[in-house]
Amino acid sequence: MLILSQESGTGFITTCSKSGVVALTFDDGPGPYTNILLDYLSKKKIKATFFVVGITIKEYPDVLKRIFRDGHQIGLHTNTHPHLNELSYEQQKDEIIQVNNTIYEVVGVVPNYMRPPFGECNEHCGELMKSLGLTVTQWNLDSGDWRYELLTSEEQRYRILNNILSKLLPSNSKIDSFITLQHDTYRYSVEIVPKIVEEFEKKGYAFKTVAECLGNKVLPYKCEGNKNLTTKNRKMNNTGTNNMKSNSKNNMNNNINNNTKNNTMSKTGGGKNVTSGSAPGSSNNRIFIGISIFNAIIFGLLSVDG
User: Exactly one of 27, 145, 176, 184 is catalytic; which is it?
Assistant: First the structure.
C-alpha cells in the first residue's frame, strides 16, 4: 500500500486546539482486530476516533455498532478507499454519499469529520468537502504502521513505538497536542496501543476524541436519529430560519430525490440502489432516509429542532 504525505488546505485539521490532549485515531476499519482494540479502550475508559470505510462496514456492521455504542467518534474514510485526487467531482461526492449511507443505515448518524485516504485531498477535493460540511482531519503523529507488514512482530512493535516516541518524548503537554494515525486493520498496530497509551500517560496527556480535542466547535455528527446536532442549524433554529415555506419544502424534496437518484450507483464495493418506494422499515428505506437527511443538511435545506 502506498501512502503519500498528507495534503493541507483551508480548514484542514492536523492537531488539537487544546494543549495537553491526544486524539487516538484509527483508519480503514472496522476490521477483524477492532474488537480487541475496543476491549482495551473500554478497560481504560479511553474514547478514540475511527475513520471508517463503507465496504468494510458491510463486512463488520456489528463492530461499527459497538464503536458507536462504546462512545467513540465515527468519521468518514470514503466508501472504497480510493485516491480522491484521481476521481472526478461526482465520483468524489459519491464516495462520501455512499459511506454516509452505510453509516446511517447501521448506527443512524451522519458524521461531520472525514479523513481522505492516503491523506490525499487537493484544493478541488478540499472545496468539495467544505461544501459538504465536512471537516478534513489529518494528523501530526504518524505511527507508520502501514509500512511494516513484512517485518517480524518484534520489529513492527519497535518501529511503531519509535515513531511515536520520536515526537512524544521531546513534547511538552502544557503547550503541545497530538492527533495520531494508526490502522485497526493491522493486529500488530492494535497490540502496541497499550504501550503507546502508557507513554502518553507518562507525559501527562489526556485522551480525547477529535471533536473533543477541538473543543467541540464542530460536533461529531450532523444528525443523530432525528435530531440535527450541528451548531449551524441550532443557530438557524434560534433565529427562526427553520420555518420553511411550503415551496421550500417542495424544493427540498425534489432536491433530495434528484441527488439520491444521481449519486447512488451500482459498482463493485458500492452501495445498494435506492428508491423512495421501499417498504417502511426496510433496509432500502433506511438508506434513503439517511441519504435524504445528509443531502438536506449539507445543502442547507433542513433544520431540525435539536
Answer: 27
- Rounded CA-CA distance 252/248 in Å is 6
> Alpha-carbon distance 181 to 208, whole Å?
14
Of the residues 39, 183, 184, 305, which is catalytic? 183
- pLDDT beyond 50 at 235: no
- Closest by alpha carbon to 34, among 72, 2, 6? 72
Q: What angle do CA 235, 223, 118 make, to 5 degrees?
A: 110
Top pLDDT among 230 and 118 is at: 118
Q: Is the peptide bond before 30 cis (omega within 30 degrees of 0)?
A: yes
Query: Which CATH code is given to the segment(s) 21-213?
Result: 3.20.20.370
Residues 6+ positions from 158 with CB-CB distance below 8 Å: none
Q: What is the pTM of this model?
A: 0.76
Pinpoint the residues of the chain covered by CATH 3.20.20.370. Answer: 21-213
Q: Is 26 exposed, middle or buried (0-12, 13-18, 19+ CB in 10 A)?
A: buried
Residues 6+ apart with CB under 8 A from 211: 49, 73, 112, 113, 218, 219, 220
Looking at residue 11, what is its pLDDT? 76
Q: What is the pLDDT of residue 8?
A: 67
- Condensed to tens digits (0 to 9), the pLDDT of residues 213-227 reads 999 999 999 976 544
CA 184 from centroid of its chain's CA atoms? 14
Q: Cell numbers of 6, please?
A: 498528507
- The CA angle 266-269-271, to the nearest 5 degrees, is 50
Tell me, yes or no, if 183 is annotated catalytic.
yes
For residue 223, list its beta bridge partners: 110, 228
Distance from C-alpha of 249 to C-alpha of 247, rounded to nearest angstrom: 5
